[in-house]
């Protein structure tokens, strides 16, 4: 099983360090006669945490459900632990119950007519495991999520967060080959969400199970994953470790979706391999990160560059005559508590910039704006 | 040499016939289809031949007891029949199961059961002698000449005797409750029913009742031809049973029962409800209710014993006392009823019997009487 | 293992893995329904055109003479429509008001009234007609007697043997269905829709009329249709209250035709065909109307809809509820109980005129009624069990499986609604008679007829419950390794338990009180309560038939009480 080269994303090959544990090849799926997943291919290494990230309707949940066996793809192949569980060409379709996976649903799907313990023990019992083993494993899983005292409670008496924990315990308890999670935190409030995130990462580290995690929240994806796949309209936009996607978005969509980015359009002044690309925006020139070839331009021939709000710098004092230093004005300032956002007017237009509350700039005051060239990334237009 | 006439060679035989064979085949096919669709008479007589053989054999009580519960169909009041059967079972040890079915429902049901080959009924106490006689002509009634037949006048027996016999005479006077209708204004003759004061206040049984049919049948030649139209103008009501008529009469909701089975008289009196009967001089239309054994009976012994008892003096006394009706036997009298000799009893005469039983006449009546009661 | 590189714009290829084949759970019920409905309908239509020998089966001659002679009797159809439409309107009015009081206002006693209001339906029109004829007959009716006694006026207050009387009794005994259906929709309404109306200044009545009512329209239409088709086939009430007034509806005419000799099957079939055509038209029309409206309302998240405080109006509304319970439950059961205790006809309050003999007679002495009670219980259990099993399977197939043909199955399941029960019953009778297997005259024939006739009701009930089960609960079970059977057993059926029980009891009660569907199918050995009471009414006295009706009512009430007990023992579902 050589490392799969992801052709559709068209860029740097991703070499999975270990043998891929889950492989998805050429997956195409439809829903109500509409195609929602188009020719998607990726793989997950053993013990890796992969996130499928994207806006609603991008096909991430459908992809997950295809891997689980809850949806039947139109075409493609899925391999789990060297076993082909689905192949359209070879007419193989292993039913869900035989795939030995587990899943945490968005609604948690805790069975209301059973106790917490019975919920967690269900998978083990179905496998025919001995009673005493069932007991010890289930209780262990409950202990790990801190729900041991409530083992005998009726499932209907649980709060949202508690149900989530039970769902997690249930999915770890039955010794699956991999865990699938479908937006498990989206029903929780913000504070609970971040806490659960930490706990889930802890669990992940302990159990070291391959995990596929579907979410529309890029913070979650960034915080928890080893690798992130950004999806849009049924296709993969970009794939890679979180920081790489953050620092090197390939398209406007990805730049916009992950973190806050400013998109500036302009014309190429100079493009020489190995040197920073010069882009002219409203008469001003920006130096952008060097690249071998140019990205896809817009219809009118202009190119897009993404500048992250956190990477643009605001300073006081004189503006040196170097590239990417400009005189600018603070148009508006919004205090968000931990963070401050500024709307800054600069020769090339307007930029949104993040700052800290310990060093505030006044509205209307002049500032010195600096964008490091490596932080001005040229991206594909839509 | 061998005489080929004695053992006709089938092939030769059909070969000789085969020249005009298409027509012949068509006729056979049509006959077959006719058999299938209406075909029971043929099947019936075949089975019946066997039944006829045992017809005159006297029944054996021991065998009868072993034959299992007798299935009895009737058109009478269930309560009365149940009470009578109790006495019969006590006396003979033969169990009886009863089911109430008016003739309109009974004969088609029998048809259906023959068709599916699972008829189970043994005896039918019917309220329509005409249709019973039709069945006799189709060979569906077992002929059993009970020793009790000698006590019955010819007009109360089938012709030839032994197929069915009258087990009671249902005479139909007018009735009213004297609390709501005073005797002087009460109708005395049939024509009195046309008095405008009775508009909307007369009740009959509806066209499904054999007794209504009989009433029309015997009166239509006696009363003026326009009587029925005028009766329709009186807007009489059509009830589903005589009991219903009496309920309304005693409630005061309807004033006159145009023709009510006379056994209701004693029933009302026994419930301490006042009632008066009127036997018009033109005559009281009556029905001779026949009892007969169904040809495919599986319990011939029990059936015969049942009929014997029903027609006997003791049985007639019991049955008519329970019901409050008139027996066809001259040696049976029920206390509380005016003697039958004082009544002008109108029943269909033998020469009219064919017309009485015909489906066409029935249909004509149904149409007319439905109109009369507003259906 | 090659990657399909050009999959991008390929048209949707037909699935090759059997995901959308027609599963047995779909085509089996479809076949059953096609046979069970289609064949009787076919026989009915064939017979309607029979102009030859009326008894011949199959008909020998075809023609339209029957329909021509129907033209002389248009009043049968007219009367049927008059009564059905009027009673539907009245029942809907009562139902909407009651549902609104129960579920959208703060009028006290909701739980109690919920139960009391539901009871008249399973008690049935037969009990209702009997009771009201004893209450409202012009001279001897209890209410009229009371009126005369109190006021001294000799003229009766009202005569139940009249068209308004029939409409009234039909309406009050079908209203609980309307309350149930509309109530369910009202409970799920998103109250924000009403609240915004009041925020913008509309008073309670205005909000009720301008916002609540229009949003309820799909539920209202659905309930009205159900009621209308039920009433088109109504038999007991028009027959028992109408013949006295020379008022005949189509079902009465058919009944008389069946009892007469010779039975005029073709004309009866022609009437049947016309009735089926009318109800089918109604079903089609309402389906069209419903389709063109978007279902804006329901399934707001678990919010309890806000209840209106009616303040000064509360006693009035309470009185309305009490009045309904009075006329539909208390008075009927009361007068029947009184009548059943009488030694002889008439309604006396004196203990010396009372006896328990009538009960002894119907329960012990009289074999027909004894048998009828036993048969009805058996039949009720059979109908409940099989009916719920079939309805649940169909509901699951329609809502949870991915089999092809699901929509067709759902439509077919609701088809029996379009068939007035009496008409269906005699078409079914012919079908059964023509089958080579010995089905005619057995309880199985009645059982089959009941299952078909009650399937729409059972399906409605189970469908609502199945849909409420979150799909992910079943998926979670499958992921945990459970195959379909284990999943049904450990997850689906336990979750459905409350609904299964409720619908079982509903089917049980309805089958016990049914008359029209079994009138022609039951016979000697297979007597059941409904037809038994009816023929008892024909030939027995009021005391005895009242006793039998009381027995039927008691059976039904016990069933109701048992289910409420069991439902309460399982909280949280």
Report on the structure:
The complex is a heterotrimer of chains A (382), B (375) and C (573). Chain A is α+β, with helices and mostly antiparallel strands and 382 residues long. In chain A, helix 2 packs parallel to helix 4 and helix 3 packs across helix 4. The N terminus of chain A is likely disordered. The N terminus of chain B is likely disordered. Chain C folds into 2 domains: 248 residues, MetI-like (MetI-like fold), CATH 1.10.3720; 275 residues, MetI-like (MetI-like fold, Orthogonal Bundle). Chain C contains 24 helices and no strands. Chain C is globular. The N terminus of chain C is likely disordered. Chains in contact: A-C, B-C. The interface between B and C is large, with 59 and 47 residues.
Mean pLDDT of chain C: 82
**End-to-end Cα distance of chain C:** 48 Å
Principal-axis shape of chain A equals globular
Distance between the termini of chain A: 35 Å
Rg from Cα of chain C = 26 Å
**Quaternary arrangement of the chains shown?**
heterotrimer
With helices defined by DSSP (H or I, 4 residues minimum), what is the helix count of chain A?
Answer: 8
CATH architecture of the largest domain in chain C: Orthogonal Bundle
Q: Could you state the CATH homologous superfamily of the largest domain in chain C? A: MetI-like
The CATH class of the largest domain in chain C is Mainly Alpha
SSE pattern of chain C: HHHHHHHHHHHHHHHHHHHHHHHH
Strand order of the largest sheet of chain A: 7-8-9-3-10-11
Give the topology, please.
The complex is a heterotrimer of chains A (382), B (375) and C (573).
Chain A: E1 20-31, E2 34-45, E3 49-53, H1 60-68, E4 75-80, E5 83-87, E6 92-93, E7 101-104, H2 116-127, H3 131-144, H4 160-173, E8 178-182, H5 190-207, E9 210-215, H6 218-224, E10 227-232, E11 235-240, H7 242-247, H8 252-257, E12 261-270, E13 277-281, E14 284-288, E15 303-308, E16 313-315, E17 325-335, E18 340-346, E19 349-355, E20 366-370, E21 376-379
Parallel strand pairs in A: 3-9, 3-10, 7-8, 8-9
Antiparallel strand pairs in A: 1-2, 1-4, 4-5, 5-6, 10-11, 12-13, 12-15, 13-14, 15-21, 16-20, 17-18, 17-20, 18-19
Helix pairs in contact in A: 2-3, 2-4, 3-4, 4-5
Chain B: H1 10-17, H2 21-38, H3 40-53, H4 61-66, E1 70-74, H5 78-92, E2 96-100, H6 103-115, E3 123-125, H7 129-137, E4 141-142, E5 164-171, E6 174-176, E7 202-205, H8 210-219, H9 227-233, E8 237-239, H10 242-251, E9 256-257, H11 263-270, E10 276-278, E11 284-294, H12 300-311, H13 313-323, E12 345-346, H14 353-357, H15 359-373
Parallel strand pairs in B: 1-2, 1-3, 7-8, 7-9, 11-12
Antiparallel strand pairs in B: 3-11, 4-11, 5-11, 6-9, 6-10
Chain C: H1 24-48, H2 65-70, H3 74-104, H4 110-118, H5 120-123, H6 125-136, H7 142-151, H8 163-187, H9 191-199, H10 204-215, H11 217-232, H12 236-242, H13 250-259, H14 265-291, H15 314-340, H16 357-365, H17 367-400, H18 406-414, H19 421-434, H20 443-468, H21 471-479, H22 484-513, H23 529-539, H24 542-568
Helix pairs in contact in C: 1-14, 1-18, 1-19, 3-8, 3-11, 6-8, 6-12, 6-15, 6-24, 8-11, 8-12, 9-10, 11-14, 13-14, 15-24, 16-17, 16-24, 17-18, 17-20, 17-22, 20-22, 21-22, 22-24, 23-24
């Amino acid at each position: 099983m050589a490392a799969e080269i992801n052709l559709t994303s068209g860029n740097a090959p991703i070499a999975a360090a270990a043998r891929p544990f889950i492989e998805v090849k050429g997956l195409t799926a439809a829903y109500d006669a509409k195609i929602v997943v188009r020719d998607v291919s990726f793989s997950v290494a053993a013990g890796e945490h992969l996130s499928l990230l994207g806006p609603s309707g991008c096909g991430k949940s459908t992809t997950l459900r295809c891997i689980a066996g809850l949806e039947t793809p139109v075409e493609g192949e899925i391999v789990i632990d060297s076993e082909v569980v689905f192949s359209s060409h070879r007419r193989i379709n292993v039913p869900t119950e035989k795939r030995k996976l587990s899943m945490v649903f968005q609604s948690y799907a805790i069975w209301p007519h059973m106790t917490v313990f019975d919920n967690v023990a269900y998978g083990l019992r179905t496998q025919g495991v001995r009673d005493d083993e069932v007991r010890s494993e289930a209780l262990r899983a409950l202990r790990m999520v801190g729900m041991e005292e409530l083992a005998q409670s009726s499932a209907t008496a649980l709060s949202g967060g508690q149900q989530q924990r039970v769902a997690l315990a249930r999915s770890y308890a039955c010794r699956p080959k991999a865990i699938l999670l479908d937006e498990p935190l989206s029903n929780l409030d913000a504070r609970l969400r971040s806490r659960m995130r930490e706990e889930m990462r802890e669990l992940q580290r302990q159990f070291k199970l391959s995990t596929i995690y579907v979410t529309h929240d890029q913070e979650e994806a960034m915080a928890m994953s080893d690798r992130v796949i950004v999806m849009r309209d049924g296709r993969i936009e970009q794939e890679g470790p979180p920081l790489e996607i953050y620092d090197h978005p390939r398209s406007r969509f990805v730049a916009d979706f992950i973190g806050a980015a400013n998109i500036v359009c302009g014309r190429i002044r100079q493009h020489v391999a190995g040197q920073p690309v010069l882009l002219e925006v409203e008469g001003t020139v920006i130096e952008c990160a060097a690249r071998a070839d140019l990205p896809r331009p817009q219809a009118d021939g202009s190119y897009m560059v993404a500048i992250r709000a956190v990477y643009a710098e605001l300073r006081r004092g004189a503006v040196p005559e170097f590239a990417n230093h400009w005189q600018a004005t603070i148009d508006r300032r919004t205090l968000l508590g931990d963070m401050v956002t500024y709307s800054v007017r600069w020769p090339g237009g307007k930029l949104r910039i993040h700052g800290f509350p310990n060093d505030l700039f006044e509205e209307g005051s002049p500032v010195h704006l600096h964008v490091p060239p490596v932080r001005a990334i040229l991206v594909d237009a839509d | 040499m061998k005489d080929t006439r004695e053992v006709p060679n089938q092939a030769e035989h059909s070969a000789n016939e085969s020249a005009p064979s298409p027509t012949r085949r068509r006729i056979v096919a049509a006959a077959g289809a006719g058999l299938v669709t209406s075909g029971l008479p043929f099947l019936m007589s075949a089975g019946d031949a066997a039944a006829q053989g045992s017809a005159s054999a006297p029944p054996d009580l021991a065998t009868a007891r072993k034959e299992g519960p007798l299935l009895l169909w009737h058109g009478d009041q269930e309560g009365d029949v149940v009470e009578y059967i109790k006495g019969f079972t006590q006396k003979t040890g033969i169990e009886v199961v009863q089911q109430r079915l008016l003739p309109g429902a009974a004969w088609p049901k029998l048809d259906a059961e023959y068709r599916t080959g699972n008829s189970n009924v043994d005896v039918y106490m019917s309220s329509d002698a005409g249709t019973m006689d039709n069945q006799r002509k189709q060979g569906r009634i077992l002929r059993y000449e009970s020793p009790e037949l000698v006590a019955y006048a010819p007009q109360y027996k089938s012709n030839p005797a032994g197929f069915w016999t009258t087990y009671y005479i249902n005479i139909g006077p007018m009735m009213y409750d004297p609390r709501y209708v005073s005797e002087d204004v009460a109708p005395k003759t049939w024509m009195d029913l046309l008095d405008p004061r009775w508009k909307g206040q007369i009740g009959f049984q509806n066209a499904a009742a054999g007794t209504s049919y009989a009433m029309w049948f015997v009166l239509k030649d006696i009363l003026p031809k326009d009587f029925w139209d005028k009766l329709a103008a009186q807007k009489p009501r059509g009830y589903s049973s005589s009991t219903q008529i009496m309920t309304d009469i005693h409630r005061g909701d309807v004033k006159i029962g145009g023709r009510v089975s006379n056994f209701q008289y004693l029933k009302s009196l026994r419930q301490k409800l006042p009632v008066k009967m009127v036997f018009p001089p033109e005559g009281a239309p009556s029905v001779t209710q026949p009892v007969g054994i169904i040809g495919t009976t599986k319990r011939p012994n029990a059936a015969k014993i049942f009929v014997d008892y029903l027609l006997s003096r003791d049985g007639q006394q019991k049955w008519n006392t329970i019901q409050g009706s008139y027996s066809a036997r001259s040696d049976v009298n029920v206390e509380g009823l005016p003697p039958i000799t004082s009544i002008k009893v109108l029943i269909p005469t033998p020469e009219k019997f064919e017309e009485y039983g015909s489906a066409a006449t029935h249909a004509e009546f149904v149409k007319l009487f439905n109109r009369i009661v507003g259906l | 293992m090659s990657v399909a590189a050009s999959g991008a714009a390929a048209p949707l290829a037909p699935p090759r893995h059997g995901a959308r084949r027609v599963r047995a759970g779909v085509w089996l019920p479809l076949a059953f329904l096609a046979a069970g409905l289609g064949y009787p309908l076919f026989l009915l239509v064939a017979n309607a055109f029979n102009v030859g020998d009326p008894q011949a089966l199959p008909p020998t001659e075809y023609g339209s003479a029957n329909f021509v002679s129907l033209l002389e009797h248009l009043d049968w159809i007219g009367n049927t429509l008059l009564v059905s439409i009027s009673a539907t309107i009245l029942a809907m009015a009562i139902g909407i008001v009651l549902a609104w009081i129960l579920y959208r206002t703060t009028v006290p006693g909701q739980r109690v009234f919920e139960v009391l209001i539901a009871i008249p339906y399973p008690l049935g029109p037969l009990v209702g007609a009997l009771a009201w004829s004893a209450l409202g007959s012009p001279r001897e009716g209890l209410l009229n007697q009371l009126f005369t006694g109190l006021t001294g006026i000799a003229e009766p207050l009202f005569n139940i043997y009249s068209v308004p009387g029939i409409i009234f009794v039909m309406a009050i005994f079908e209203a609980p269905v309307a309350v149930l259906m509309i109530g369910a929709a009202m409970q799920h309404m998103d109250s924000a829709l009403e609240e915004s109306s009041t925020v913008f200044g509309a008073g309670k009545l205005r909000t009720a009329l301008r916002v609540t009512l229009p949003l309820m329209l799909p539920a209202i239409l659905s309930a009205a249709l159900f009621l209308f088709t039920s009433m088109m086939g109504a038999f007991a009430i028009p027959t028992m209250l109408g013949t006295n007034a020379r008022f005949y509806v189509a079902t009465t005419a058919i009944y008389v035709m069946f009892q007469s000799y010779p039975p005029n099957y073709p004309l009866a079939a022609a009437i049947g065909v016309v009735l089926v055509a009318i109800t089918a038209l109604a079903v089609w029309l309402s389906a069209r109307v419903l389709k063109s409206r978007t279902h804006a309302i329901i399934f707001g998240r678990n919010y309890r809809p806000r209840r209106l405080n009616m303040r000064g109006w509360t006693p009035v509304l309470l009185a309305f509820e009490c009045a309904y319970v009075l006329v539909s439950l208390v008075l009927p059961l009361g007068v029947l109980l009184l009548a059943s205790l009488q030694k002889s006809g008439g309604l006396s309050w004196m203990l010396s005129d009372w006896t328990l003999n009538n009960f002894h007679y119907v329960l012990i002495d009289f074999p027909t009624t004894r048998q009828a009670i036993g048969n009805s219980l058996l039949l009720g259990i059979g109908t409940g069990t099989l009916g719920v099993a079939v309805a649940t399977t169909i509901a699951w197939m329609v809502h949870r499986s991915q089999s092809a043909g699901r929509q067709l199955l759902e439509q077919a399941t609701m088809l029996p609604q379009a068939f007035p029960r009496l008409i269906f019953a005699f078409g079914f009778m012919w079908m059964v008679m023509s089958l080579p297997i010995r089905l005619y005259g057995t309880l199985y024939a009645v059982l089959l007829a009941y299952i078909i006739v009650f399937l729409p009701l059972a399906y409605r009930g189970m469908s609502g419950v199945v849909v409420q089960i979150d799909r992910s609960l079943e998926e979670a079970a499958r992921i945990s390794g459970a195959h379909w059977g284990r999943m049904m057993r450990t997850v689906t059926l336990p979750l459905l338990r409350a609904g299964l029980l409720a619908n079982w009891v509903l089917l049980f009660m309805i089958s016990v009180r049914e008359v029209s569907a079994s009138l022609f199918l039951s016979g000697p050995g297979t007597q059941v309560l409904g037809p038994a009471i009816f023929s008892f009414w024909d030939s027995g006295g009021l005391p005895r038939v009242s006793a039998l009706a009381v027995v039927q009512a008691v059976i039904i009430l016990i069933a109701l009480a048992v289910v409420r007990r069991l439902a309460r023992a399982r909280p949280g579902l």
